[in-house]
Amino acid sequence: MQTLRVNFIEALTENAVIPDVEVTIPNSYVQPNINSEMLSNLKFRVANVEGLTDNKVRTFFKKLHKVMVNDAQLAGITNTNTLVNDLLRIVGLNNWPFSVNNHPLCKLLLEENHYVSIDPEFVINIEDTDMEDVAIIVVENEHLNNNIVSSNGFGETQIALEILACVSENIRSLGKWKHTDQKLWVIRVISTYVTFYKAEIPADYLKELENGLPQEQSVKIQRWPADNDLKTGYNLAEPNGRREVLTALAKIRASLLKGDNLI
After folding, report:
1. DSSP class of residue 75?
2. What is the pLDDT of residue 27?
3. Which of 18, 22, 50, 255 is most buried by a 10 A CB count?
4. What is the DSSP code (8-state) at residue 152?
5. How far apart are CA 38 and CA 133, in angstroms?
6. Which of 65, 131, 74 is nearest to 97 (CA)?
7. DSSP state at residue 16
8. For residues 213 and 139, is the Cβ–Cβ distance under 8 A?
9. Nearest alpha carbon to residue 143 among 101, 185, 197, 84
């Protein structure tokens, strides 16, 4: 990412990435007795879990089980996408003013008539005060058997391109060729491991990007949890991991509803 002057850094605190706001979460999805050992058991059946009666919650754990048992197969990619699709809706990120968009084609303009096409798994938009949709959250799903290695930052190279492409789309879709500071959150999901990113893109960086590769300005993207590896994110297969992910998503949503927007 040296060419685009994008820097991923370890966040010093959770609040550097996740907004510090009070929220409530749907605790029925935490299920303290359901863990990775149980979910990876081929004989796991949601109907046999004592106290698990809500059919929506049952469906979530059935999909989580499929991700766990298909880690060694290509089918795990589709299962992870389906699981994340549910997760975004559980926390209300597909309820107005938010909307989930699957595989939107985004173009990163580097200079006039030169662009790179990017295809994120999901982009969450929010309708702004002018009733225009702007991208505020990007979701990138990966599978443990994909080409996710340390040389590409375990998918962070792709994340950087998706962030810049969404920012580029925001400027064009709003019809405002006036460059302003922008802010986006990113959720990386590798199998059941979830990492959060907060990107801050200065207006001066966008001005440089419009004329080609940036020469002076740069972008800072903070990561939480801070470490970066295949399994350093919050683990959805464990109760504490589910609680952390649900809480983080709810906090990002609440912060955006309070006006902590990107443009």
Report:
1. H
2. 95
3. 18
4. G
5. 41
6. 131
7. G
8. no
9. 84
How buried is residue 171: exposed, middle or buried, by Cβ count under 10 Å (0-12/13-18/19+)? Answer: buried
- Residue 93, pLDDT score: 95
Average pLDDT over residues 29-45: 95
**pTM confidence score:** 0.91
- As to burial, measured by CB atoms within 10 angstroms (0-12 exposed, 13-18 middle, 19+ buried), residue 145 is middle
Domain spans in the chain, listed from the N-terminal domain onward: 6-31+96-257
Read off the amino acid at residue 4.
L
Closest-CA residue to 242 (of 33, 82, 30): 30
Residue closest to 252 by CA, chosen among 193, 192, 173, 199: 199
Q: Which pLDDT does position 208 carry in this prediction?
A: 85
Q: How far is CA 72 from the centre of its chain?
A: 23
Of 196 and 155, more confident: 196
> Are β-strands 133-142 and 219-224 bridged in parallel, bridged antiparallel, or unpaired?
unpaired
| 21's tokens | 């706001």
Q: What angle separates helix 75-90 from helix 239-257, to the nearest 10 degrees?
A: 50
Say what the pLDDT of residue 111 is. Answer: 67
For the stretch 98-147, pLDDT in tens is: 999 998 888 887 766 677 888 888 999 998 766 567 788 888 876 555 55
Q: Dump strand ranges (E) for 45-162.
A: 98-102, 106-111, 114-118, 122-127, 133-142
Say how far apart CA 76 and CA 205 lie, in whole Å: 37
Collapsing DSSP states into helix, strand and coil, what is residue 100? strand
| DSSP designation for 47 | G
Mean pLDDT of the chain: 86
